[in-house]
Amino acid sequence: FGNTASATRTVIVVDTTAPDLTVPADETVECDSIPQVGSASATDNCDSEVSVVYDGEERTDGDCEDSYTLTRTWTATDNCGNATTLSQTITVIDTTAPELTIPADETVECDSVPSVGDASATDNCDGDVDIKYDGEVRTDGDCENSYTLTRTWTATDNCGNETK
């Protein structure tokens, strides 16, 4: 009479799946166009509020001072400690030559030939562009005191880009 049977079912719930993390896409940019740190997002099969932390940026030098790689890293962690870490790689390049400003062309009398003068240069990355006076070439005109002097300068930035 009263024969009864009972059974117990134990369901063990675990969370062993790490979050899916999305970080900004890799980019290649000029040295004066480095983007601000972007934002990452994450989803998880169990945790609706995944923690996403920006871990920082590491610089790896390249061939020249204004050519390098930035690796920006984020980590997403769910409430059970499962974590995913991903990085964005920003390749920084300098392919832009300096802008060179030299003394203006002029026509003068033979007894008023100006001194060489000074040149200046600006660059999108290099704040101290190397400027070199390359010299002058004389091209004779119709008589001994009529000629053209062609003076040349070269501006070179940290990555070897140059303007003449």
Describe the structure.
By secondary structure, the chain is mainly β. Helix content is 0%, strand content 46%. The protein has no helices and 11 strands. A 4-stranded mixed beta sheet has the order 2-6-5-4, with no helix packed on it. The radius of gyration is 33 Å and the shape is rod-shaped. The termini are far apart.
Number of helices: 0
Percent range of helical residues = under 10%
Structural class: mainly beta
The count of DSSP E runs of length 2 or more, i.e. the number of strands, is 11
N-to-C order of helices and strands: EEEEEEEEEEE
Q: What is the 3D form?
A: rod-shaped
Low-confidence stretches: none
Strand content: over 45%
The radius of gyration is 33 Å
How many angstroms separate the termini? 109 Å
Report the mean per-residue pLDDT as an integer.
95
Q: What key phrases describe this protein's structure?
A:
single chain, 164 residues, mainly beta, 4-stranded mixed β-sheet, 3-stranded antiparallel β-sheet, 11 strands, 0% helix, 46% strand, rod-shaped
